Amino acid sequence: xxxxxxxxxxxxxxxxxxxxxxxxxxxxxxxxxxxxxxxxxxxxxxxxxxxxxxxxxxxxxxxxxxxxxxxxxxxxxxxxxxxxxxxxxxxxxxxxxxxxxxxxxxxxxxxxxxxxxxxxxxxxxxxxxxxxxxxxxxxxxxxxxxxxxxxx
Length: 152
Known about the structure:
By secondary structure, the protein is of the alpha+beta class. The protein contains 3 helices and 7 strands. It has one domain: 2-Layer Sandwich (Alpha-D-Glucose-1,6-Bisphosphate, Chain A, domain 4), CATH 3.30.530.20.
């Protein structure tokens, strides 16, 4: 199950990269993320770093953890997250410069594991819609944020 969205955003890629890499901002733009759990013990700079988060799914609060797999500054980030009932989801962010004030961001979410939310058959129909909704809403949030200028 794979969902991919690509959007042109009105900020320099490096500035956007720095903003997205700051895990403290995730609840402000990442769809479904309610809060960062224990931010003082989190790190998000190099492979193997992790961040615990609270996420809202179907009206329920779930706690999960994101793990940084690959980071190439202002170019590429690959991570994966795990949550009870959901399993493991891979996330990729690809930054492509358009010019000094714009870039294109590609977001990819993918999971091979059927979740345990509804059962295998229903999951194959519902999970891609949940991933697409989350990624679409996330991009809408980023467009809104970046249209106002990236907070410092």
